[in-house]
Structure formats: C-alpha cells, structure tokens
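From the shared-data thread, chain only:
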Amino acid sequence: MIRPLVVGLMTLSCAWSVPAIAAAADPEQDWANLPVRMTAPAGALWHAPLQRVPPTRGPVLPSLYVSLMGLEAYDGYSTSRGLRHGAIESNTFMRRLAANPSALWAVKGGATFVSIYMAERLWRTNHRGQAVALMVVTNGLMAAVALNNASVLRAQK
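Structure, as tokens:
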C-alpha cells in the first residue's frame, strides 16, 4: 500500500524539478528577458519601450514528462515484483541489472532524466516538434513495456 504512494510522490517531485534543472543547464539563453518592440500604426511617430514577455509553454510537454516518469516507475515496480515471483527479465541488457534493485532504479531514473533533458534541450533550441516527438516515442515505448509487464504479472496470479 505504501509503495505506490511513495512512487507517486517521487514521480511528482521529479516532474516539478525537471524544468528548473534544464533551465539552470542552459545559461546562454535568457528566456525570461526576451525583448519585444511594439510597432506604431502607419504614419504614427511614437515608439513604445521594450517589454519583457515570458515564453509560453503549453501543457503537452510537461504532461509527457509526468507520464514518462509514471511509466518508468511502474516498469521498475512491476519488474521488481515479477522477478520476486519467478519471472525472467526478457531484456538481455537489463537482466543483470534487474537482479539488483538499486541498480534497476538507478537505470530507470537515469533513462528518465536523459529523455527529459534531451527533450528540454530540443525545446530550448527551437526544435519544439522534435522535442514533443521524442517524448511521444519514448512514452509509447514505455507504455508497450508497461503493458507487457502487466500481462506477465497477471499471468503469475
């Protein structure tokens, strides 16, 4: 009962810290101080001062971050539970790591961090479509893994 709550809280705390980490890793771009100059109507002689407009980000990319964290957390949980009940890890690379729970969680956390970090870098370098596509593909792959794990756990009962 307590594990799903802890995993959920860890996922939410990671989701709130990722944009701040990515922003701190990109010092050459000061997105909070974008200059925007207003233009006067035709024939007018006034000049408006520079205004600071914060960048806007829709809810799609952050929601993909949160869903990836949730999928990775479920994958780690279901892999650990399946291995305890006699399942075999089908990924040959992860087979050795899955035997050690701390190594499994470290790899899951690292994979999540790298995916989100790369998407943030793409977003900040104006490759926004690629950033969203990267997260959609990553979420799709993790959803397939989660479905497979769920079927294995269901078959064990």
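The beta strands are 35-36, 51-52.
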